[in-house]
From TrEMBL:
Lineage summary: Bacteria, Pseudomonadati, Pseudomonadota, Gammaproteobacteria, Thiotrichales
Listed name of the protein: Trk system potassium uptake protein TrkA
Cited PROSITE patterns: RCK_C (PS51202), RCK_N (PS51201)
Classification via NCBIfam families: PRK09496.1-1 (NF007030), PRK09496.1-2 (NF007031), PRK09496.1-4 (NF007032), PRK09496.3-2 (NF007039)
One MF annotation (Gene Ontology) recorded for this entry: potassium ion transmembrane transporter activity
Organism annotation: Leucothrix arctica
Domain of life per record: Bacteria
Pfam families given in the database record: TrkA_C (PF02080), TrkA_N (PF02254)
Positions of the RCK C-terminal domain: 142-226, 368-453
UniProt keyword annotations, A-Z: Ion transport, NAD, Potassium, Potassium transport, Transport
Length: 458
């Protein structure tokens, strides 16, 4: 595909890097010459310097031949105008824009062909809020992904000493929890992906990705690590879009929530908006304030301000003062691994979360969702099978007959309301949702092509 990316920030650069490895023709537009130079040297892509909301810049960047435009600058207005110009002047088929302002998002009528013709809106704050909420709902999980309208979940868990299946083969799941269907999708051991089989032995510190029906996830996690009590008391540092929306979600689920916000106006707004959340005006890195608010009895301290350093420092302080778990929103990729190797339990990467949201709309074929695993090292796709044996490479075939690329495996097949875990006898039928793990993203185009409907495949 010919794809034009507007914005060479962290999200735009990560998206360009991901798409450039998949046989796409990528052009990145940005006003910053230094960012563009870095991308040209690092990736096999074209770049163009300029303001992408201006018609002459889009024309010079060859938008007229683009299949898709993805606008992810830091300005909502530039993103929206670029999509509007691309449609009106160049009839670009697919327009995707990152829009952050709630003021715009609350008026969906703005985004139509008669107004601002954007096909897909990506709201990073909404994606981040949902991501953090899922972590709160699944104590001990490193990542929680929903598939097939939340019928099935894939969860990442770190194997801990004391877990029932430590030093056991994967096949022992069947003996430990015989009434639960579970499939171990992948194991990351010392940073390397392993596609496990029944003989694979689970070791301490393995990062294990398991998939099962939603109602069984907690019992599956209990086999791999020490069962954590459900979280109840939550403290949020930062009352911006993410912090405010997260508090709103949590208080509805009967969590006890406190939110610390330094800006008096924002704190006042939150106090009026939230019903059961205690809003505190102050600095989340104030040791006296944290102690006063009983930080040692907080189950999760979550720092989600716009300042990486403030998030990291306040989370470290909260952990030292006794908080059970601490999370920090970290924008800089170079900080993420550094942070998680220290006393902070989890670094939340907005760019990886946003990238997953974008990729589902970039992939070809009927791909419902795409999720990046291990900070983008691998991906899980949910794709819908269409056609019949004459028009499809997958419909009517058993899983063992599929010619999947190396490092790929089917995690589950969802047939209507039934979740079917992989076995050689499972036959893919039309409208099945097939969930596929790929340890090497270079093979994504192969998967896309497999599920595209055409004539004369047999």
């Amino acid at each position: 595909m010919n794809i034009v990316i507007i914005g060479a920030g962290q999200v735009g650069s990560s998206l360009a890097a991901s798409l450039a490895t998949e046989d796409n023709d990528v052009v990145v537009i940005d006003k910053n010459a230094e960012r563009l130079r870095y991308l040209r040297e690092k990736l096999d892509i074209d770049t163009y310097q300029g303001n992408a909301s201006q018609p002459d810049v889009l024309e010079s960047a060859n938008v007229i031949n683009a299949d898709m435009i993805i606008a992810v600058t830091s300005s909502d207005e530039v993103n929206m105008i670029a999509c509007q110009v691309a449609f009106l002047l160049f009839r670009t088929p697919t327009k995707i824009a990152r829009v952050r302002s709630v003021s715009y998002l609350d008026h969906q009528e703005l985004f139509s062909k008669d107004a601002i013709p954007i096909d897909v809106l990506i709201s990073p704050e909404s994606l981040i809020t949902e991501h953090v909420y899922q972590l709160m709902s699944h104590p001990g999980a490193l990542q929680v992904l929903d598939f097939a309208n939340k019928k099935v979940q894939l969860v990442a868990v770190k194997a801990q000493l004391g877990g029932k299946l430590i030093d056991h083969e994967i096949r022992d799941f069947a003996d430990h929890i015989p009434d639960v269907d579970v499939h171990v999708v992948a194991i990351f051991r010392k940073g390397r992906a392993i596609l496990p089989d029944g003989d694979t032995v689970i070791e301490v510190d393995d990062e294990i990705f398991v998939i099962a029906s939603v109602q069984h996830i907690r019992v599956v996690m209990s086999e791999l690590s020490i069962v954590e009590k459900p979280y109840k008391k939550i403290m949020i540092a930062g009352g911006g879009n993410v912090g405010g929306n997260l508090a709103s979600l949590l208080e509805k689920e009967r969590y006890q929530v406190k939110i610390i916000e330094q800006n008096p106006e924002t704190a006042g707004y939150l106090a009026e908006k939230l019903d059961r959340t205690l809003v505190l005006e102050g600095d989340a890195a104030d040791e006296h304030l944290l102690q006063e608010e009983d930080i040692s009895n907080i189950d999760v301290f979550c720092a989600v301000t716009n300042d990486d350093e403030a998030n990291i420092l306040s989370a470290m302080l909260a952990k030292r003062l006794g908080a059970r778990k601490v999370m920090a929103l970290v924008n800089r990729p170079s900080y993420v691994d550094l942070v998680e190797s220290g006393i902070i339990d989890m670094a939340i990467s907005p760019q990886q979360i946003t990238l997953s949201g974008l990729l589902a709309h970039v992939r070809q074929g009927d791909i419902v969702s795409v999720h990046a695993l291990r900070k983008g090292a691998a991906e899980v796709l949910e794709v819908v099978a269409h056609g019949d044996q004459q028009t499809s490479r997958v419909v009517g075939r058993t899983l063992v007959e599929l010619k999947l690329p190396p490092g790929s495996t089917v995690c589950a097949v969802v047939k209507g309301s039934n979740v079917v875990l992989p076995s050689n006898s499972v036959v893919i039928e039309e409208n099945d949702h097939v969930i596929i793990f790929l340890s090497d993203k270079r093979y994504i185009p192969v998967i896309e092509k497999m599920f595209q409907v055409g004539m004369g495949y047999l």
